[in-house]
């Protein structure tokens, strides 16, 4: 079986899963440029968007997968299909 944790926010979260589940853990980061995020009506809020809970994984984590979500639906679909094929192969 596979389990998805959709919202790890701190390095300690990722470390805990890696310590407990070892090589079974696959980390995925979804990224979008600030420009894309602004087009989606995101507005930076000081004290919120710069808090550890929002940027605690910006450094110090080597993600297994980085998915780019900048509005190119075909590219996003291809990235997700590749990820899913890999995950299915690990089951």
Notable features of this structure?
91 residues; mainly alpha; Rossmann fold; two-stranded parallel ribbon; 4 helices; 43% helix
Ends distance: 7 Å
**Main sheet: strand order:** 1-2
How many helical stretches? Answer: 4
Task: From the alpha carbons, calculate the radius of gyration and give it in angstroms.
Answer: 15 Å
In the predicted model, the low-confidence regions spanning at least 5 consecutive residues are none
For the biggest sheet, the summary is: 2 strands, parallel
Structural class: mainly alpha
CATH architecture: 3-Layer(aba) Sandwich
CATH-wise, what's the superfamily?
P-loop containing nucleotide triphosphate hydrolases
Number of separate domains: 1
Order of helices and strands: HEHHEH
Mean pLDDT, all residues = 93
Portion in beta strands: 5-15%
Can you give the helix content as a percent range?
A: 40-55%
Please count the beta strands (DSSP E, at least 2 residues each). Answer: 2
The gross shape turns out to be: flat
The CATH topology comes to: Rossmann fold
Give the arrangement of secondary structure elements.
Layout: H1 11-21, E1 28-31, H2 34-39, H3 52-55, E2 65-68, H4 73-90
Parallel strand pairs: 1-2
Subcellular location: Cytoplasm, Cytosol
Protein name: Phosphomevalonate kinase
Organism: Balaeniceps rex
Description of the molecule:
The protein contains 4 helices and 2 strands. The chain is mostly helical. It has one domain: P-loop containing nucleotide triphosphate hydrolases (Rossmann fold), CATH 3.40.50.300. 43% of the residues lie in helices and 9% in strands. The model has no long low-confidence stretch (mean pLDDT 93). The N and C termini lie close together (7 Å). Strands 1-2 form a two-stranded parallel sheet. It has helices at 11-21, 34-39, 52-55, 73-90, and strands spanning 28-31, 65-68. Keywords: ATP-binding, Cholesterol biosynthesis, Cholesterol metabolism, Cytoplasm, Kinase, Lipid biosynthesis, Lipid metabolism, Nucleotide-binding, Steroid biosynthesis, Steroid metabolism, Sterol biosynthesis, Sterol metabolism, Transferase. Pathway: Isoprenoid biosynthesis; isopentenyl diphosphate biosynthesis via mevalonate pathway; isopentenyl diphosphate from (R)-mevalonate: step 2/3. This is Phosphomevalonate kinase. It is an enzyme of class 2 (transferase). GO terms for molecular function: ATP binding; phosphomevalonate kinase activity.
């Amino acid at each position: 079986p596979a389990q998805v944790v959709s919202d790890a926010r701190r390095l300690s979260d990722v470390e805990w899963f890696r310590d407990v589940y070892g090589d079974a853990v696959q980390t995925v980061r979804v990224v979008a440029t600030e420009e894309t995020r602004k087009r989606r009506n995101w507005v930076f809020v000081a004290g919120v968007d710069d808090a550890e809970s929002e940027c605690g994984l910006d450094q110090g984590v080597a993600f297994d997968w980085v998915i780019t979500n900048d509005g190119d639906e075909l590219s996003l679909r291809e990235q997700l299909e590749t990820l899913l094929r890999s995950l299915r192969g690990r089951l």
